[in-house]
Amino acid sequence: MTFLISSCGVDNLMALPRVARMARVGRVRRMARGGALAGVLVGALSLTGCYVVPIQPPHYPNGSQQGSTVYMPPAAAMPAAPMTFSARLYPSNDIASSYGMVIAVVTNDLNGRGTFSTNINGESFTGEATRAAGSARDGQANGAGNRGSYINCRYQMNSATLGSGQCRLSNGAQFSMHVGN
Asked: Is residue 99 helix, strand or coil?
């Protein structure tokens, strides 16, 4: 009599025909592999980070308090980082129509000031924008071009990144400005 010793409990395989014995051994091995895989998965899932944290301090029968409570002050607020967004200048008179729509880049430091830059007809303009005193919405921007021209804008913000206004170049070109993405 031949015995196959297996961890899956198959003791006497000779009682089965040869084909049935081989199929049975294959199923037993697959089940053993599947069981091992299931054991590994259960072990891994049990370590996935489930924590139990007490919500209330423990109550002691004699009314004493053991341990101590540590109070952490709130973290200091970080200053807001400057925000950069685009402004679109659309022509609003015949002189400006030859330039078409112009894109400007605006950086708002969120403290009533900012910088802007644009390129109109090959001339680079850079400048700054400042909110009007006592107003969180109204402001003025001025910039100088690298060929001697200048640009002046008046604007009104609806939020920190959205607004509209009017701009005028030193040659008389006028633009309607839309600020924000």
From this structure: coil
pLDDT in tens, 38-84: 665 555 555 555 555 556 666 666 655 555 566 666 766 666 788 88
The CA–CA distances, whole Å, from 14 to 8, 19, 21, 54 equal 16, 11, 8, 60
What class does CATH assign to 83-179?
mainly beta
Strands 102-108 and 123-131: unpaired
Residues of the chain with CATH 2.40.128.120: 83-179
> Tokens 């950069």 map to which residue?
84
Q: What's the pLDDT score for residue 66?
A: 58
Is residue 138 classed as helix, strand or coil in its secondary structure? strand
| Sequence letter at residue 33 | R
